[in-house]
Design goal:
With about 180 residues, the protein is an alpha+beta fold. It has five helices and eleven strands. The protein folds into two domains: about 1-35; about 40-179, Sulfite Oxidase, Chain A, domain 2 (Alpha-Beta Complex). It is globular and about 45 Å long.
């Protein structure tokens, strides 16, 4: 019995050694994985629909870096969702639409939780509504309504302080469809 247990132990040790050697050989032969992309290059926003500038699947994607490369606007304003006046910054929504050569009359903005709101493109031309990427100079975490929030210039244009504009002020924006 003792000899049988010794043989099993030897077979097990030999099998383990072979497995370890095989794993070492595979790890040396496998190409190294590329580094993870920077968080500034991950897509934050997808635009689809009636657009002239799109990728091979008919959409346009924007990372934080791509949004930062567009002309920036700042809106210092009160909102119903924040305490006091805050400084929001990012590209105007209209500049984002120009970047993809939007050809519709409305946009449907969808949030991470699938809340959606329709905004006429004419309104985006009329007011400096921004797609905020930052609040008070800092990127906006998801838990604080980010990474993208539609911000109307409520204090500069008091006529935008109404229920319709509030419903159109989508936060946690993830997608836009041009119609």
């Amino acid at each position: 019995m003792r000899l049988h247990c010794l043989r099993i132990q030897t077979i097990w040790n030999t099998s383990l050694l072979i497995a370890l050697l095989f794993a070492a050989l595979i790890s040396q032969a496998a190409p190294s994985l590329p580094a993870l992309p920077s968080s500034t290059n991950l897509p934050l926003l997808t635009i689809s629909g009636k657009i002239g500038t799109k990728d091979h699947v008919g959409k346009a994607e924007f990372s934080l870096a791509a949004l930062d490369n567009l002309p920036q606007q700042t809106n210092e304003t009160w909102t119903p969702w924040h305490n006091g006046v805050q400084k929001f910054s990012g590209p105007t929504f209209y500049e984002v639409l120009k970047a993809v050569n939007a050809q519709g009359t409305n946009v449907v903005v969808t949030a991470i939780n699938d809340y959606a709101s329709t905004i006429p493109i004419q309104e985006l031309r009329q007011y400096p509504i921004i797609l905020a990427t930052r609040i008070n100079g800092k990127t906006i975490p998801i838990r604080d309504k980010g990474p993208l929030i539609i911000i109307y210039p409520f204090d500069r244009y008091p006529e935008t302080k109404n229920e319709i504009s509030y419903f159109r002020s989508v936060w946690n924006v993830r997608a836009v469809e041009v119609r």
